[in-house]
Amino acid sequence: MLVRTIGKIYLVGAGPGDPTLLTLRGKACLEQADVILYDYLANPVLLDLAPPSAERIYVGRRGRGTYQDQAEVNRLLIENARAGKTVVRLKGGDPFVFGRGGEEAEAIAAAGLPFEVVPGVTSAVAVPAYAGIPVTHRILASTVAIATGHEDPAKGSDTLEWSRLATTNGTLVFLMGLKNLPSIVGHLVSEGKSPDTPVALIRWGTRPRQQTLVGTLADIVQKAQEQELEPPTVIVVGAVVRLRAQLNWFETRPLFGKRVLVTRPHEQAPELSTLLTGYGAEPVELPTIELLPPESWGEMDEAIAEIKRYHCLVFTSVNGVEPFMARLCHHGLDSRALGGLRICCIGPRTAQELRRYGLRADLVPAEFQAEGLIDAMKAAGVAGQRVLIPRAAVAREFLPDELRALGCDVRVVTAYRTTLPAMDRSALFEVFGARGLDVITFTSSSTVLNFTKLFDNRADRQKLTERAAVACIGPITAKTAVEEGFSVAIMPAENTVPALVEAIVQHVSQKN
């Protein structure tokens, strides 16, 4: 057995803030990490890529707050690597662009430890791009200079060559410079830069809460003070800033800046979150459902043992497909065991999940709920047939009852259970936070009912949710929401996640 006596350190660039801008190599490093030391500017969402057992240590630095001692950061890196651990130093942007990555690499090398540098997308380029500002342009800017806006006080004097920076015809990008904005502007103007030169201040660039303030060297300091702009902010100086009026693609998306609560189970939340992000929203995931296996597989095993006696197999949720197919495999069977059965799915997403196993649904109703499914099954002539329904332990009895009314021999077996996930009550209130929520989404009656259980009483819930529009995936979910005291503002014509997102977009667009 190979025993690892020494670890390795990865200096990983986390990118500018948008988690999808992390490199593939960075993702691979996080997935094998034993310890992660992360910065203030590294999106905390990226920590979810690491194993649950990985130790997460915050060593952040904030422009107007207290600073973590660099020697202590170096000590933690070296100490953990010497203990045989895989250590990821997760740094905002790129490790070697004003991120002290060079200093940390020097310390690691001096300690004789193996390390790897994983470059990241630097905020100096990505943040202006998300504000609609290209840092170079064939006509407007053939060069770009990246400078720190906050020099190390230990230097004792300003070492930036302001005369050269002021006389360049290209673009200037200052990182970490908001606190010193008056000084930066003063130096540039005094060295000959025109006061009419365009300037952009971009706060929290590439994130859904991005804020861009545009002015000139003559008025940008006053504008920043009036807006009470805070770090982290990237400063862009040059003619390319004028292109923002035409190229502003990120902040003009229909859901830009909107915070949308996603209550789906953890495994399914990414589908909805990804669609929302594409429209500019900030998804806030708060799963109100946890999927669990049945307390016993006995019923399912009995049904699988006699699978050939059934005429129809019905999936009423995407959640039922995987456990049923997994149990089939457990008994040494595969999709061939379902030959001759008519397979019915309540909607296209469930049918899509089925195709992962090489199976195509024979029947998907036009109306994606139990009422639509029973109408389609009636039309397909299932009367008197034997029907197997793997589903949640607790569900509506409409479908089984209607099928039995048609003379069908119906067997319902538990494929999964749902429960309310364990949750820190303080985390719940952090979700709403000072900025609140703009939309709350419910994709099933269970998400509604479990969401209400998070609150001590209806008054507390209404106080926190009153300004948020409630979006329900379909009429059954909406009915449950109304019964629980919600006013449903958004419901798509089609019971699918993409249609739900489109309905949210339409609702927000109409309000604006």
Describe it for me?
This protein has 4 domains: 114 residues, 3-Layer(aba) Sandwich (Cobalt-precorrin-4 Transmethylase, domain 1); 123 residues, Tetrapyrrole methylase, C-terminal domain (Methyltransferase, Cobalt-precorrin-4 Transmethylase, Domain 2, 2-Layer Sandwich); 122 residues, Rossmann fold, CATH 3.40.50.10090; 128 residues, 3-Layer(aba) Sandwich (Rossmann fold). The chain contains 19 helices and 20 strands. Helix 16 runs parallel beside helix 18. It starts with 7 loop residues before the first strand and ends with a helix.
Which helices and strands, and how do they pair?
Blueprint: E1 8-13, H1 24-31, E2 35-38, E3 55-58, H2 70-82, E4 86-91, H3 101-110, E5 115-118, H4 123-130, E6 144-148, H5 162-167, E7 171-175, H6 181-190, E8 198-203, E9 211-216, H7 220-227, E10 233-237, H8 244-247, E11 259-262, H9 269-278, E12 282-285, E13 290-292, H10 298-305, E14 312-315, H11 321-330, E15 342-345, H12 348-355, H13 370-379, E16 386-392, H14 398-405, E17 409-419, H15 425-432, E18 439-442, H16 445-452, H17 458-465, E19 469-472, H18 475-483, E20 488-490, H19 497-511
Parallel strand pairs: 1-4, 1-5, 2-3, 2-4, 6-7, 11-12, 11-18, 14-15, 14-16, 16-17, 18-19, 19-20
Antiparallel strand pairs: 7-10, 8-9, 8-10, 13-17
Helix pairs in contact: 13-14, 16-18
**Estimated helix fraction:** 25-40%
The fraction of residues assigned to DSSP E strands is: 15-25%
* Adjacency order of strands in the biggest sheet: 3-2-4-1-5
Structural class: alpha/beta
* Total number of domains: 4
Distance between the termini: 64 Å
* Count of alpha and pi helical runs: 19
CATH class of the largest domain: Alpha Beta
Number of strands: 20
CATH level 3 topology of the largest domain? Rossmann fold
Principal-axis shape equals: elongated
Quaternary class:
single chain
Outline the low-pLDDT stretches: none
* Computed Rg: 28 Å
Second-tier CATH architecture of the largest domain: 3-Layer(aba) Sandwich
**Overall mean pLDDT score?**
92
